[in-house]
Fold:
Amino acid sequence: MYSEVCYEICGDGENHGQFDCDDDDITSGDGCSLACVEELGYSCNGGSASTQDFCVEDCGDGLNAGGW
Structure:
């Protein structure tokens, strides 16, 4: 019997649900880390099996994570 196992790829811009986020790169400091984990001070959403996540800095949380 043949069994196939699929793994999600971090950084390919497709969020199938295994990772917190996938913003189509493996760069930390932009809201979605190189390990596809949402970074402190950011919120990421919009990702799906065919679209990448979009991350924005949280406003009013007392952190200056990006450009605010």
Notes: Strands lie at 42-45, 54-57. The two ends are 55 Å apart (CA to CA). The mean pLDDT is 88. The CA atoms of residues 15 and 48 lie 5 Å apart.
